[in-house]
């Protein structure tokens, strides 16, 4: 039975008829669908067996202005990937109705300015790469997220609000304008990585839960401060049992 399907370069103005029908030609066991370099197709087909059973949806290199606003029709969706969709500037609020969504991955969506004010409470992993918007002013309410990965988001300077208290892993890399983390980190945080953030110069006190800390920077003054007994940065990480601190 067909479980994975990739569609590339489709130029129709709507989804093919076989995807919208409930006939015998619809692969009811389809779990993974990839749409790449496709024209804008409008709303997801309602009452489609194919879409209602999907576990993973990947949209990449599509010249779309928006993601359809009827995300709630993807009732079984657990993973949603949006890659190199350069015109999308927002995500639909209906994403909050994806009750099974676990992983959200956003990469190279340069016009995307913000995340929806509400995301599913089922969300466990949020990864944002190579994007230029401000995404992190209001994610503290996402108390199901365990892992947050932020990479090459050049407009990120600081976190204006608390991070989700459920967070156990945080990776921040190549965010050239980031200067600091929130003054209070989640009390469940176990692993923290901050690398290649060259303006980053100040560490808050790490929570007792933190087991592993990795810091990498070309800012020699910052690196030395993390290794110098008595400096506030050093004192804030002294109790972390496993540390990897490097200058490059």
UniProtKB/TrEMBL annotation:
Repeat among keywords: yes
Superkingdom of the source species: Eukaryota
InterPro entries, per the entry: LRR_dom_sf (IPR032675), LRR_R13L4/SHOC2-like (IPR055414)
Occurrences of domain Disease resistance R13L4/SHOC-2-like LRR (ranges): 30-213
UniProtKB keywords: Repeat
Claim: Repeat is one of the keywords in the record: yes
The protein's name: Disease resistance R13L4/SHOC-2-like LRR domain-containing protein
Organism: Oryza sativa subsp. indica
């Amino acid at each position: 039975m067909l479980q994975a399907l990739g569609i590339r370069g489709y130029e129709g103005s709507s989804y093919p008829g076989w995807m919208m029908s409930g006939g015998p030609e619809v692969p009811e066991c389809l779990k993974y669908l990839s749409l790449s370099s496709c024209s804008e197709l409008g709303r997801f087909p309602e009452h489609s067996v194919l879409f209602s059973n999907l576990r993973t949806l990947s949209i990449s290199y599509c010249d779309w202005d928006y993601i359809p606003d009827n995300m709630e029709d993807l009732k079984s969706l657990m993973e949603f990937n949006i890659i190199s969709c350069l015109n999308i500037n927002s995500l639909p609020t209906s994403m909050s109705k994806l009750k099974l969504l676990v992983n959200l991955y956003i990469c190279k969506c340069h016009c995307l300015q913000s995340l929806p004010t509400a995301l599913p409470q089922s969300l466990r992993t949020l990864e944002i790469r190579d994007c230029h918007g401000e995404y992190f002013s209001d994610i503290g309410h996402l108390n199901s997220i365990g892992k947050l990965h932020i990479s090459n988001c050049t407009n990120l300077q600081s976190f204006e609000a608390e991070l989700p208290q459920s967070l156990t892993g945080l990776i921040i890399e190549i965010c050239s304008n980031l200067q600091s983390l929130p003054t209070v980190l989640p009390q469940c945080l176990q692993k923290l990585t901050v690398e290649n953030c060259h303006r980053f110069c100040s560490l808050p006190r790490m929570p007792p839960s933190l087991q592993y800390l990795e810091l990498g920077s070309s800012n020699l003054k910052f690196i030395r401060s993390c290794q110098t007994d008595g400096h506030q940065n050093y004192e804030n990480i002294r109790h972390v049992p496993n540390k990897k601190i490097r200058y490059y």
